[in-house]
Amino acid sequence: DNDVWLDLGRSRWVKAEHYYWRPFKAISKFPEGYEVSYCDGINGAYKGSINSKKPLTVFFRKEGWIDIGGCRWTLEKHFDIVDIR
């Protein structure tokens, strides 16, 4: 089976051909080198920091936080969100 499936979480899967995903990127509002913390969840434990203006893929937005992949969450207010369609 060469079909592409997307995991929506909680054991829910959908064929990619039936799902429209709008990719967004997050770009730090701060100068290169300024560190923005990220956590392991919303209001979670500190995991590290981002210090680059490199655009990051936004996988999920919730309660003022953005998921930038790898179970890394950061406050949305520190980033400009860009629609890359």
From TrEMBL:
Recorded superkingdom: Bacteria
Protein name, entry field: N-acetylmuramoyl-L-alanine amidase
Classification lineage: Bacteria, Bacillati, Bacillota, Bacilli, Bacillales
